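User: Hello! My lab partner asked me to get a predicted holo structure for this protein. The small molecule is magnesium ion, SMILES included with the sequence. Please write out the structure tokens.
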Amino acid sequence: MKIAVLMGGDSSEREVSIKSGTQVRLGLERLNHDVICLDPADGGLNELALAKPDVVFLALHGGKGENGAIQGALELMGLPYTGSGVLASALAMDKAMSKRVFNAVGIRTPGSVTVNRADGTTHATRKASEEVGVPCVVKPSCQGSTVGIGFVKRDEDLMPALEGAFSHGPAVLVEQFIAGTEVTVGVLESPVSGEPEALPVLEIVAKNEYYDYDAKYTPGKSDHIIPARINPEAYEECQSLAVRTHTALGCSGYSRVDIIVDPSNTPWVLELNTLPGLTQVSLLPDAAKAAGIGFDELLSAIIAAALR
Ligand SMILES: Nc1ncnc2c1ncn2[C@@H]1O[C@H](COP(=O)(O)OP(=O)(O)O)[C@@H](O)[C@H]1O
Ligand SMILES: [Mg+2]
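Assistant: Hello! Below are the structure tokens for the protein in complex with magnesium ion.
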């Protein structure tokens, strides 16, 4: 097949996207596809219209590459692409909207409130403190990879954390902090049935206090443990929650769901990533490998889903 890999882009995750895209290109070449790499931040979409590939492989992360914008452009061009469509991408990227869906369908997620920059920081702080309180996590609603996130332990730290988050976007999610074991569950559509299936549950052990940007992307600053060291009931519940989350947001192809399992073995869904990292040391490829699905086979399954 002729496959265009979109990588780079102008989001804060550009560098990671280039790493994912490079691994994807190498994998697709091993599979004997005809591969071109294009960067939407550098005229790539115009070239794409001329190249007319059989399928577009999205190795973009964050921003317009993951929030439905590129997906909409590809719909207009009539090109099949990997991963989720416009609506699921937009819902998943917006943490506040995701939470509304989780709450509507009964997916367990930490209590939260959304505050807006337009309300003013003083009002936002009062609302956050009344409705959630500390300890809490303050997240810009439309950012990924832990950009602009704040962990607040004391009341007096809430306002500066909100100010920081508002500098990244107009809406901010304030969420109860859940202590526990951090896990992530990849979801992949079965090439046989087309149904989404959970990969093995992967436990993340960050060497920093939190799984922040540095811990995520600096080699050696976090460990992946598969299977996660949680009890069998919690393990199964994480897998079923991940598939339910994928389905509730209307995702396609693949995704990865971030979960915290608290000390009483209750899993809490944090978010779903529609375009999770695809470097060979990324979380989803690692979980796939533990399920006996090698990197190239994973790419084939993702492409098969896109063409279905
Ligand atoms: N409610 C929470 N309780 C405890 N830790 C959290 C909570 N929300 C986020 N975190 C931590 O912050 C990290 C990033 O949060 P997440 O919601 O996954 O956003 P993103 O990965 O898009 O930055 C998580 O992997 C987790 O380590
Ligand atoms: Mg996350």
